Amino acid sequence: MKVLVIKIAAIGDFLMATPALRALKLHGSVHSVTLLAGNSIAAVVQGNPHLDKIYYLDDAMIFKGSFLAKLAEVLKISWRLRREKFDLGFNFHRDWRFNIILFLAGCKKRIGFVSGRKSWLLSEGVAITGIKHHIFHYCDLLKGLGIFCLDFKMEFPLTEVVLNAAAAKFLQPEKLIDYVVLAPGGAANVKEEMDSRRWGAENYAALAGLLIGAGRRVVLLGSGGDQKIASLIKAAQPEVIDFCSQTNLAEAAALLKKSRLVVCNDSGLMHLAAAVGAPIIAIFGPTHPEEKKPLSAGNIAVWKGEELACSPCYHDGRFPECEHRNCLKKISSQEIFELTKKF
User: Fold this and answer.
1) All residues at 6 or more sequence positions from 330 whose CB lies less than 8 Å from its CB, including other chains
2) 2-143 domain in CATH 3.40.50.2000?
């Protein structure tokens, strides 16, 4: 079979889909796997060893453009994909509108998620029910074909060349051997920014102070969009080393892999840290950790939502407006600091 998979945006979501992509590619009935991705996640997609071909579209246009601009982008990419003559197409998004691309691309069979709705434009719909990790949801899409995920480890390949280059560029100048990474930002993608998932700069600053007081070296990691948060932490704790916006994704992955511990929000960097095998303390708020937490043994997910009637409030890709954020306020810097002593 010649297979098309649609996974447009969000670094963390793509990484959670990698076990399903691996199982798909390794199955004897599958000859090739092609991915349709957005430009925004090219850095995490391009090195995946289980993809034979990648097509990109302008996902900023898809999520934020006018109706006519969206239509033009969909028709353009669908025409290109149609020439591939796919036997099977998967929509790895919960958004039914991406089924349109599978249909226009001429996929003979089309499989995707349904949630209490008719499986419009799909040959087979897979129901989303209850609290379940997204990795398992992606693997569920394959079961109807007799394809099963036997390994749920996420993948982000890192070569020794990249690891050594990142160490020479960032670690050696700072004489960093043993350090803790704080990833205080994230929870943003081309579609939306979800600051309700962030623990808060003041909390990370207090934690950094406790770690530094205990003799730990502290490194900040994040994208350019996280620079404001990082600058607040740096102002409060001048001894932290701020690498926010200074690394590409592979360099960030290398620094995560070499760290003693990563403390982070529910974010793309959390999933990247898990994919490269870094030890993690992940802080969850509106999202139930059973849906997204790192699955590797030894990692810790901290969540106080079970104590609140309003939590989890994340549902089907949407976060309601929240003024109090009690699910995150209940988590103290001292509590997280005590957990860091286990690593």
Assistant:
1) 304, 307
2) yes
